[in-house]
Amino acid sequence: MAIRRRRALSPSPGTCGNDKHEKTQTVGDSIILGNVYQTINDWRSAHRLSLFILTLVALLATSALVVVLIYPQGAGSKTVPTSPPSTHEQASPSVSSERVSTPAPSKQDVRFAVVGISEAGPLQLATPVGVRLNSQQLRYLKKWSYTNMDPAGYGNHIREDLQAVGAASVDKQYVSIKLEGGRNRSISVDDIRPINIKRTAPLAGAFVNFPPQDGGEALQMIFNFDEAQPRARDKAGKDFEEARPGGLYFHNRSITLREGHEDSVVIKAITTRWSATFNIRIDYHVIGEAMESKHLILSNNGKPFALTALHCTQSTKLVPDGYINGRISYQDIWELGSTAMVRAANPRNHPIGSPYCLPPDAKKRAA
């Protein structure tokens, strides 16, 4: 019996080449697919971060919009209701007042107003060195006379304009303060005194000496800035020009403001040695309640009150038959002549008579 042997199959050359090509193609496709997959992952990761940032920005913008809608003025601000000022809290056109550390409006105990700053004698103002009168002020002074006492309607403004550049009342200043008790309560004013006092040498810029002004209400107390610690003092002697400091005004008394009633306090501030700026403090308490001291602080239109002594370079001397003129020195001087304002020819060495530039001991002897 013949035995047939099966011949082993061997791949043909062509077939083997095709297998290798298929394998190579498969590997290449895998590499490409892997790169595409990696690219997609990288794109998704990058965009995931961008999406997160965009989401965060959207959330912040939404939160800000909610805050704006709920709090139109900003989350950190507070809306404080305001009401029109009382007529008793308004000052005259040239003078206003500033309140510090006062009670809340609904519980306010006392109201006040600075009624005015005036002189009982000549209206005298001096500016700091280097502050000269402007063209409008010079025109006013040149045209002023007893027959034309308010040239161009500027008379009501020259004082405040000069004070705005640092001018001070000379030798004396009268401050009238109007006080009013609160509703359903009476007030006891326990002290009135100057605070925040700053002293310098007398001002020596321009000196303006206007004609006499009308006097106001009766004088009640005096601040003497020649004292180290000025306090409210009684007047000794007559009112206004001749009034001198006496004993302490609030030593054994107070000022009572009945509920809803008004009272005025007229203060004379004086100095012969300094230029001084100051505020005025009023201490008070509510009658019938626990003795809790409260206070108000007054200023002149948001600025300190200002007072200066004359810039005397030579004292006036009293003699049996009268006096010998003293001397003052300024950069510019305007004073009242016979009928009009006159500019001094030599303001650096200008004569002035009694009662100005008198030494302190001479004033005591004259009193």
Strand proportion: 25-35%
Which of globular, elongated, flat, extended, rod-shaped describes the shape?
globular
Oligomeric assembly: single chain
Biggest sheet character:
10 strands, mixed
SSE pattern, N- to C-terminal: HEEHHEEEEEEEEEEEEEEEEEEEH
Structural class category? alpha+beta
How far apart the termini lie comes to 174 Å
Number of helices: 4
Uncertain spans: 1-28, 65-106
The number of E-state strands comes to 21
Q: In a few lines, what is going on in this structure?
A:
The chain is α+β, with helices and mostly antiparallel strands and 367 residues long. 22% of the residues lie in helices and 32% in strands.
Task: Explain this structure.
With 367 residues, the chain is α+β, with helices and mostly antiparallel strands. The chain is globular and about 95 Å long. The chain has helices at residues 13-70, 135-143, 158-164, 360-366; strands at 110-118, 122-126, 168-170, 172-181, 187-200, 206-212, 221-224, 233-236, 244-248, 255-257, 262-270, 275-286, 294-298, 305-308, 312-314, 317-319, 322-324, 326-328, 332-336, 341-343, 350-352. The protein is built from 4 helices and 21 strands. It starts with 12 loop residues before the first helix and ends with a helix. Strands 2, 3, 5, 6, 10, 12, 13, 14, 19 and 20 form a 10-stranded mixed sheet that branches. It is 22% helix and 32% strand. The model is unreliable at 1-28 and 65-106 (pLDDT under 50).
